[in-house]
Amino acid sequence: MDILEISDLTKDLGRFRLSDVSLHIPQGCIMGLIGENGAGKSTLIKAILGLIQPDAGEVFYCDKKLDTNDKTVMEQIGVCFDSMHFHEQMTPEWVGRIHAKLYPNWDADCYEKFLQRFDLPMKSQIKGFSKGMQMKLNLAAAFSHHARLLLLDEPTAGLDPVVRDELMDIFLDFVQDETHSILLSTHITADLEKAADYVTFLHNGSLLFTRPTYELQYQFRIARCGEQEFHRLKTEKGAVWRKQDYSYEVLLPEGAALEGKVSCQLDRASIDEIMLMYVKGEQS
């Protein structure tokens, strides 16, 4: 069963258009959302939540059309944006008190444990927090009202690798019972290689693909070759290429099947390299 289904979601903002985006997020999974700056990741999350009104398309939560005015349903969705949405003069203690009034399922013990785990002082004003501390506070609040779905926009921005690794473990624990899910927008694709089950790639407001992470890790190859080999490889299904000074780079979605059948070097492609090739490369 899908916890979230997005069908043909469209929003025209003038200089930018989110175009007919459709995707499914199954229960018990982490969906990574990638794309260059301005690709539409934040716009998509805001449209899901009704913070901006889509021009077309529908969003379904647990097989029912998502009503963003239904407090009972929206309490089941936790949100963390890439900027602090609490007033800078507030303290984590104050944040907890406000959330306790907003969410019937607010778990004060859970919230306090996350504050301790993230080493956040309960009575210090947020204006003195670093960007990383602010993100930890956002996450502590998102985790503490027992949401079933988390929508996270760059939640690891500003965090050091040790804390990011810890967060990936927390995210994996969150989805273990197979009734919770996460949509995780990030530029740090190494986090997705560890934790995400699927990766959705947005480019210029359009959906390029949604694929299992293991396919990106084990099936995509980059060929570095001369002109003769390039002309043969560019006819492969889904090939994307870039011309270098004295050679070509060709991204092959099914490149693993070509190993041993070509004369040039085939290297595994990282998610960063895949994104770069689709953004800057050429296709037939």
Task: Describe the fold and architecture.
- 37% of the residues are buried.
- The protein is built from ten helices and 14 strands.
- Helix 4 (108-117) runs antiparallel to helix 5 (131-143).
- With 284 residues, it is α/β, with parallel strands linked by helices.
- The protein has two domains: 2-213, 3-Layer(aba) Sandwich (Rossmann fold); 219-280, no CATH class.
- It has helices at 41-49, 71-74, 92-102, 108-117, 131-143, 161-174, 189-195, 213-218, 227-233, 271-280; strands at residues 2-12, 17-26, 30-34, 56-61, 64-65, 77-80, 149-153, 181-185, 198-203, 206-212, 221-225, 240-243, 248-252, 265-268.
- The radius of gyration is 21 Å and the shape is elongated.
- The protein has a six-stranded mixed sheet, sandwiched between helices. Strands 2-1-4-5 form a four-stranded antiparallel sheet, with helices on one face. A four-stranded antiparallel sheet has the order 12-13-11-14.
- The chain starts with a strand and ends with a helix.
- A hairpin with a 4-residue loop joins strand 12 and strand 13.
- The protein is 32% helix and 28% strand.
Describe this structure in a few short sentences.
The chain is an alpha/beta fold. It contains 10 helices and 14 strands. The protein has a 6-stranded mixed sheet, sandwiched between helices. A 4-stranded antiparallel sheet has the order 2-1-4-5, with helices on one face. A 4-stranded antiparallel sheet has the order 12-13-11-14.
Features:
284 residues, alpha/beta, 2 domains, six-stranded mixed β-sheet, 10 helices, 32% helix
